[in-house]
Amino acid sequence: MPFSTDGVYTIRNVGRALMLDLTDDSTKEGNPIQGYADNGTEAQKWVIKKQEEPRNSENTFTVQTSNDADEPVVYTRHACLVDLVPGVNDIYRFTLGSKNLVLSIPSDEDSAVRLANFNAADAYQQWALIRVGDLQSVGN
User: Fold this and answer.
1) SS (H, E, C) 28-80
2) In whole angstroms, what is the distance from residue 9 CA to residue 66 CA?
3) CB 101, CB 125: distance < 8 Å
4) Which of 21, 34, 81, 128 is most buried per CB count within 10 Å?
5) Rounded to two decimals, what is the model's pTM?
């Protein structure tokens, strides 16, 4: 079933049970994203919102950090455009530009989040989305 609900989520890697996390809780441009143990911080919360453009696909979404200091979570257009490809039991793959290029935590020894070639059997390329909040309209 395609993903359909805009909101704020934590994103857990199925193969490693690590959360998608901003390294050092930094929103600085170029800061790497890592897999990290669930700690409930803002660095592990992500805004996911359905997009109609530019691809006009039922699976196209933006993903951005919700870590904005003390400000309420507000969706902006400064985000990564991805396709969320549904699997079984509400598990998804994040594809970027090509269905063969997916978000992954590559091994048990490395917690850096990287792009990898698609492998249907690889749990390191599978992600569970856990809803933790709603979006707020700009200006509220």
Assistant:
1) CCCCCEEEECCCCCHHHCEEEEECCCCCCCCCEEEEEECCCCCCCCECCCCCE
2) 9
3) no
4) 21
5) 0.84
